[in-house]
Design brief:
The complex is a heterodimer of chains A (111) and B (114). Helices cover 0% and strands 49% of the residues of chain A. Chain A has no helices and nine strands. Chain A has a five-stranded mixed beta sheet with strand order 1-9-8-3-4, with no helix packed on it. Chain A has a four-stranded antiparallel beta sheet with strand order 2-7-6-5, with no helix packed on it. Chain B is mainly beta and 114 residues long. In chain B, strands 2, 4, 5, 6, 9, 10 and 11 form a seven-stranded mixed beta sheet that branches. Chain B has a four-stranded antiparallel beta sheet with strand order 1-3-8-7, with no helix packed on it. Chain B is globular. The chains are: A mainly beta (111), B mainly beta (114). At the A-B interface, strand 3, strand 4 and strand 8 of A face strand 4, strand 5, strand 9 and strand 10 of B.
Chain lengths: 111, 114
């Protein structure tokens, strides 16, 4: 299993772009990278997923360098409602039964 | 379309008591999962199921049993509750492997064992 390492916490201000980097040095060929968001007292919610290069959706972008040993979740113009814990997961595309959630990154957005 | 629902939302048990947590999904997902989340920590996989009638152990299965008699339901049982099982339990469901990793989570069950 590819282990992931993320910062424990980050602070930002409303309107800024936030980049959260996840390290996964032993990522395997079949592994995808997925990010989830969790608000207090709620279950995690899928944000974005990618394999390589860049993926963008309506809420975030995911940047993955060529060696795939890290990935960066980018949240454009954050608001107070983006305050949450963000989890980076790496797992086999053919066996998604053993994904491991680490402690995540607690993002606090300040006014 | 309710997504993933969990019953009950809260429960307090005494040590040694038993209980069953119910998870239901209406998205026709093949895969279902049970996680626990302890304060300040990420989610840890307890058991999972890749289809009706099948179950498998996850990262922390000891003290729990599961059953998947119907595709839409996944039950988590505690036969003899212990204080170490005080946690928030999340159920999730997803499409089969190879279809991406989007797991849909329920709202959680907060269990306290005294």
């Amino acid at each position: 299993l590819a282990k992931t390492t993320q910062p424990i916490s980050m602070d930002s201000y409303e309107g800024q772009e936030v980049n959260i980097t996840c390290s996964h040095n032993n990522i395997a060929t079949n592994d995808y990278i997925t990010w989830y968001q969790q608000f207090p007292s709620q279950g995690p919610r899928f944000i974005i997923q990618g394999y390589k290069t860049k993926v963008t959706n309506e809420v975030a972008s995911l940047f993955i360098p060529a060696d795939r040993k890290s990935s960066t979740l980018s949240l454009p113009r954050v608001s107070l409602s983006d305050t949450a814990v963000y989890y980076c997961l790496v797992g086999d595309m053919y066996n998604n039964n053993d994904m491991r959630f680490g402690a995540g990154t607690r993002l606090t957005v300040k006014p | 379309n309710a997504g993933v629902t969990q019953t009950p939302k809260f429960r307090v048990l005494k040590t040694g008591q038993s209980m069953t947590l119910l998870c239901a999904q209406d998205m026709n997902h093949e895969y279902m999962y049970w996680y626990r989340q302890d304060p300040g920590m990420g989610l840890r996989l307890i058991h999972y199921s890749v289809g009706e009638g099948t179950t498998a152990k996850g990262e922390v299965p000891d003290g729990y049993n599961v059953s998947r008699l119907k595709k839409q339901n996944f039950l988590l049982g505690l036969e003899s509750a212990a204080p170490s099982q005080t946690s928030v339990y999340f159920c999730a469901s997803s499409y089969p492997a190879g279809s991406g990793y989007e797991q849909y989570f329920g709202p959680g069950t907060r269990l306290t064992v005294t």
